[in-house]
Write a structure and sequence with these properties.
A hairpin with a 6-residue loop joins strand 14 (about 165-170) and strand 15. The protein has a domain at about 125-295: Lipocalin, CATH 2.40.128. It is globular, with a radius of gyration of 18 Å. Strands 4-5-6-7 form a four-stranded antiparallel β-sheet, with no helix packed on it. It is an all-beta fold. It starts with a strand and ends in a 5-residue tail after the last helix. About 0% of the residues lie in helices and about 40% in strands.
Amino acid sequence: MKLYPTGNASDTKLYILDLATGDVQPFVTFASTRPDWCWISSGGTLTSGPVAFSNNDGIYRVDPSGTPTPLPGTANMIYPAWYPGCQYLAVDVDARADLGQGCNEPVRPLTAKIDATTGAVVVCRLANDTVWAGFPSVNQVNPNLVAFAGQFNGESNYYDQDLNYSWVTDTSTQPPHVTPFDHDAPTGPAFLQKFQARTGWWSPDGKWFAFESNRICPDLSGQTYAIFIQDASGTQPAIQVSDCKWNVQHPKWFPPRNDGKTLLIAPVQPIPPPGQSPQPYRLATFDVSRLVIGTGP
């Protein structure tokens, strides 16, 4: 089963899709987007645990067979990403959010760690004050590593998502060690389009990273994207998976499959012919098995 948003920007709701049967059902009946589900590993198998999503009110949690529960104090937090064990979430925090007493963090947006039951802030800032950070993803094998889409804030006095790289913060050190995901990308104010990247996501085994980018697209206005994968160390060149003409965004990995295939799933909105309106986004799967076998770390 997979969750996906449908609707326009002002009324997006999550639906659940059974990929085996094609059956589609509403997951929640109110505005909801940017879901992440926590996979529980036990006895060599994975089962689906709680789901988190966000809307203008903040972060919501839905336990299996449960109802959506808003997490207190999470207004203006979006894009939740689970830590292993389903106890904590990494979230994207904007300038309006109240992180509570003890969190004096003037540089926003940032990523924070919160309690997935109470909404309380556990770590005020997962990165550091040199970057604007959002769209987090937690490495499920080494949760000290949190990837995010970010921008060196010495580049300009405003946040521009089209100037993002993928970054990684290592929270095992204090202060956290923060570097671009791609080891060849500049760490200072020298943005290079060939490293542009957003909405990255670790593979379940922690060996690969998928992200969207317009780095090779003829339209750099943020209207078209391709998806790429890269080894987790960031030392090898990123591998292009899709063409810009398909406008593929927000890739996520399937959990391990019995047939041994490695798949991504992502929303697709092909560029329409001149004079025609865009079609609705649709879900597509991408078999990247041949790209990852024998080439990972």
